[in-house]
Design goal:
With 186 residues, the chain is of the alpha+beta class. The protein has 4 helices and 11 strands; from the N terminus they run ββββββββααβββαα. It has a 5-stranded antiparallel beta sheet, with no helix packed on it. Strands 1-2-3 form a 3-stranded antiparallel beta sheet, with no helix packed on it. Strands 8-5-10 form a 3-stranded antiparallel beta sheet. A hairpin with a 4-residue loop joins β6 and β7.
Length: 186
Amino acid sequence: MTVNQTQYEVEHFGSVLLSVSTCQKCGYKHTDVTTLTAQEPIALTAKIISSEDLKMRVIKSGTATVSIPEFRATVTPGPYSEGYISNVEGILEKVEDALTFMLGSAKGKSLQKGEKMLGKIRIAREQNPNFTLVIKDPLGNSAIVSSQFGKVKKRTLTKAELQKLRFGQYALVSRSKPILQRPNEP
């Protein structure tokens, strides 16, 4: 297993560490991104209404939940969820790829709904973006970066929201303890 780590300075956000683990023998690959400073649990919201907005930088950690309410699309992190640095258009491509994969086994009304959503995503990406990107990260390691002041709304997640989010229990641990410590560990 080879692990490469690179530190990046992200404008309007700060230092992040991008980690890429690969196995030359079996082809396994895992990436993650972590901020290098302690962060509060956050909810980020950006209204995407132009092709310029599609170019906004997105830092999505392995603990973040990404949603686009207009498409009824939500991507929740699993135990091996990857973090990455992309842009809004890249997020749409990832959602489109996942939906295309799922439609391979869909039938009936599920297939029709999925194809309709896929059409909306393609229109938003290629012609007329008009949707909201929401990222909720219990460890605060995600960001939507815009040079346009006020474009991205940021707030601290509530305890109730944290309890509903996958990995939210880690953020409920006191800030005086290590950030990745499980709640019941000393």
